[in-house]
Write a structure and sequence with these properties.
The chain is an alpha/beta fold. Helices cover 45% and strands 19% of the residues. The protein is built from eight helices and eleven strands. The chain has helices at 11-23, 34-43, 60-70, 84-92, 105-128, 161-172, 180-188, 197-214; strands at 3-7, 27-31, 48-51, 75-79, 97-100, 136-138, 141-144, 149-152, 155-157, 221-224, 228-231. The strands form three sheets. Strands 2-1-3-4-5 form a five-stranded parallel β-sheet, with helices on both faces. Strand 4, helix 4 (84-92) and strand 5 form a beta-alpha-beta unit. Helix 6 crosses helix 7 and helix 6 crosses helix 8 (197-214). The chain is rod-shaped, with a radius of gyration of 29 Å.
Length: 234
C-alpha cells in the first residue's frame, strides 16, 4: 500500500483528503505542521506528499525545499494561494504539481495518480538504463576496468590490451616504482613470447597516446633512472 503524507492545518480539508486517500487504497499520514512532517519522513518511506502552503510555523514553500532534499517522491501543493508567482515559486522549489483550493477529492486523486504514474515511469527508465561505470580516478586519468576505457581529462584514449593493462596496473599503485622486469612479470606473465624490453616500448606508446589526448607532453608516467617507472600522483 502506497504511503501518502498530507500536511494540512485545516481539519476539514485534512479529513477530506484522508478519507479520499483511504478510499482510493492509499495509506495516509496526516499532520498539520512541518516539524512533524519531516519526522514522519525520517521514519516512513513516503511515496507522495500533499502539501499546504499556509501552515503554523514554517510555511509550505520552505518545507517543500527541505522535503525535496530528503526524497524524490511527487510533491503536490494543495493551497488557496492562486497568484502566478506562488505557483511558479512552488514548482521552482521542487514541487511536481499545484492544485488550487477549493477542489474535489476526485480531482486530487486524479492528480496524485498521474504524478505517481509519471514518477514510476521515470524510475523504471532509470533502472533499465545501463549504469555508467564510475571507474578509478587518479589525478587527471580515469580508468573503467569493466569497459576497458581510459579517459584523460574526460577525453577518451584508445589503447591496446597490453597498454591498458600496463596503465591500469600503474594507476592502481600510484607513486610506486616498478622495474621493467617487475612490470613484464605482472603484465606479460602468461605471454610465452617477449622480454622485459617490450615494457619500454609500451611505456613510450602510452606516453605518446596520453600526450596526444592532453595536447601537451604527459608527465604522469615517470621514468626513475636506474630503477624503473611509476605513475606520479601529487
Amino acid at each position: 500500500m502506497r504511503k501518502v503524507l498530507v500536511v494540512e492545518d485545516e481539519p476539514k480539508i485534512a479529513n477530506m483528503e484522508r478519507d479520499f486517500l483511504e478510499g482510493a487504497g492509499f495509506e495516509p499520514y496526516v499532520t498539520d505542521n512541518g516539524e512533524e512532517a519531516l519526522k514522519i519522513m525520517d521514519e516512513v518511506k513516503i511515496d507522495a506528499i500533499i502539501l499546504a502552503v499556509m501552515l503554523p510555523g514554517e510555511d509550505g514553500f520552505s518545507l517543500c525545499r527541505k522535503m525535496r532534499e530528503k526524497t524524490d517522491a511527487p510533491i503536490i501543493f494543495a493551497t488557496a494561494r492562486t497568484e502566478d508567482a506562488d505557483i511558479v515559486r512552488g514548482l521552482g522549489l521542487g514541487a511536481d504539481d499545484y492544485i488550487v483550493k477549493p477542489f474535489k477529492g476526485t480531482v486530487l486523486m486524479a492528480h496524485l495518480r498521474a504524478q505517481l504514474a509519471t514518477h514510476n515511469r521515470l524510475l523504471s527508465r532509470d533502472l533499465a538504463r545501463p549504469q555508467v561505470e564510475k571507474g578509478i580516478t587518479v589525478g587527471d586519468v580515469t580508468i573503467c576496468p569493466k569497459a576497458r576505457q581510459v579517459l584523460l581529462n574526460g577525453k577518451d584514449v584508445t589503447l591496446t590490451g597490453k597498454e591498458f593493462d600496463l596503465l591500469y596496473f600503474l594507476v592502481q599503485h600510484p607513486n610506486e616504482v616498478f622495474s621493467k622486469e617487475q612490470l613484464f612479470e605482472k603484465i606479460w606473465s602468461f605471454d610465452p613470447i617477449g622480454d622485459p624490453a617490450t615494457v619500454t616500448v609500451h611505456i613510450n606508446r602510452l606516453r605518446d597516446k596520453l600526450k596526444n589526448a592532453a595536447g601537451h607532453p604527459y608527465e604522469g608516467i615517470e621514468t626513475v633512472w636506474g630503477a624503473g617507472y611509476r605513475f606520479h600522483q601529487d
